[in-house]
Amino acid sequence: MDPRTEHGLLQTRRHFLGRSATGIGTAALASLLFSESIADTSSSEDLGVLRKPHFAPTAKRIIYLFMSGAPSQLDMYDYKPKMDELFDTELPDSVRMGQRLTTMTSGQTRFPIAPSIFKFAQHGKNGTWISELLPHTATIADDIAVIKTIHTEAINHDPAITYIQTGAQIPGRPSMGAWLSYGLGSMNRDLPSFVVLTSSWSAKRDAQALYERLWGAGFLASRHAGVALRSAGDPVLYLSNPAGVSPEIRRKMLDGVAALNQKQFDSIHDPEIAARIAQYEMAYRMQTSVPELSDISQESEQTLNMYGPDVHKPGTFAANCLLARRLAERDVRFVQVFIRGWDQHGNLPNDIRSQCGDVDQPCAALINDLKQRGMLEDTLVVWGGEFGRTIYCQGGLTKTNYGRDHHPRCFTVWMAGGGVKPGISYGETDEFSYNIVDKPVHIHDLNATILHCLGINHERLTHRFQGRDFRLTDVHGKVVNEILL
How far is CA 381 from CA 161, 392, 417, 483, in A? Predict the structure, then answer.
């Protein structure tokens, strides 16, 4: 972003009036010419650099349900019945075509085919194939678009999650939520525009780490970073006033700090100082807004029952899905719900049952809840992980147990609401769910499509850093118009 433009966006009404040669007349003219004037103190911190979307959006906000660890598409959505006949036979070289393997299976002497042990059935008007693991998700088949041909170049977890979240495998770029905050700003002055919720999981296994950079702002101003809400104690650290500090004392302290920061900003014009001032003020407003957000006592029994019994346990995926709806209801622009534990290299059938038990009912409840409130049409819900799982078994194979390695060449993501066609399946993989045979969707295409739903041309939301214009979709990516209304 041009520093002169950024400086202009940071002007307050006092600065504007004080520096205007013609005083109030110029201010009046500006208000006529620019109905969303950056001179308005009440909204200047909430405006994104785009000022408004590039075109009419179909979604106002996003809830992104991220299954960290890579759920097996073969056991959930990508039905491959012919594999039953090939149990424990070797994956043909003509299918693998020498594609690289992870170090977990590169030393195996065999790559035996492991068919899914789970039954599949068709659901909804268009007959979407969904596994028995997901009976609740099956009931919303007519509301979701299942994309079976997502693919990525990354083959290990951290680069893959970093890639799909930021557009690059190397850390340091802004995350999707940060890009949206930067581009479109906030719709709620009392809550952050980007909120992150991390969930507990039932599978008793180690899980891949989640780093704060996955919801970080990268080279954008730090105020665009995601704010992670905790499930125990204060939802945000140090949100409550310490003993002996009244709201009045807190207000005086913030005013004093803001005055000092403002003097420094007037001297060197560092945008991070302005971001710091804004973050202090946001924290002050959150002292009221966050406790109200977290209090679900006013939710109806019908709503709570819809999400399942875990909704009463803070930090569970069910509780976080309800919280995501409450955040969306308060016009938080981007809510990301993480759940770990999907990294099932062994004992997959047992572990995936637990994981699906965590997410199945809450996912369906979230869609139905949004739908009942008239919010699904302008809320885009995205469900998916960082890559998929192999048809061949990692480790020992039996009729009832197997493991699967990482598979970046095809995996499944579903989307709902926000301008996405409901009740469709898009793309086809081969009979081994190994290669894509029709309608590939790269992760840059997925992200371009998500931005499109919010009215953003992904090629035009950029930020100049170190002499280059960066964007979420790096240097390629196309909108998948076939899945959009």
Answer: 18, 31, 6, 14
Helix, strand, or coil here: 35?
A: coil
- Which residues, including other chains, have CB under 8 Å from residue 415's CB and lie 6 or more apart? 144, 145, 147, 380, 381, 382, 383, 483
Digit-coded pLDDT (tens) for 247-278: 787 778 778 887 888 888 888 888 778 877 77
* Segments of the chain scoring below 70 in pLDDT: 1-45, 233-234, 237-239, 284
pTM of the complete model: 0.87
Identity of residue 70: A
Identify the structural domains of the chain with CATH numbers, from first to last. Answer: 1-41 (no CATH), 45-241+303-483 (3.40.720.10)
Pairwise CA distance, residues 343 & 325, whole Å: 27
Q: Give pLDDT, residue 27.
A: 36
What is d(CA 320, CA 239) in angstroms, rounded to the nearest whole number? 19
Which residues, 6+ apart, have CB-to-CB distance to 251 below 8 Å?
A: 284
**C-alpha span between 443 and 195 (Å, rounded):** 22
- Going by the DSSP 8-state scheme, the letter that residue 383 receives in this structure is E
Distance CA(409)–CA(474), nearest Å, equals 20
SS3 call for 238:
coil
Nearest to 361 by CA among 74, 148, 140, 198: 140
Cα distance between residue 3 and residue 434, in whole Å: 47
pLDDT tens-digit series, residues 170-224:
999 999 999 999 999 999 989 999 999 999 999 877 899 999 999 999 999 988 9
pLDDT digits (tens, 9 = 90+) for 15-69: 444 444 444 443 333 333 333 333 333 344 477 999 999 999 999 999 999 999 9
Rounded Cα–Cα distance for residues 276 and 258 (Å)? 9
Strands (E), 352-402: 379-384, 388-393
Name the DSSP class of 202: S
Which residue, 350, 478, 432, 464, is CA-closest to 91? 432
Are 308 and 171 contacting, i.e. CB atoms less than 8 angstroms apart? no
Q: Which of 41, 37, 203, 156 is nearest to 408 (CA)?
A: 156
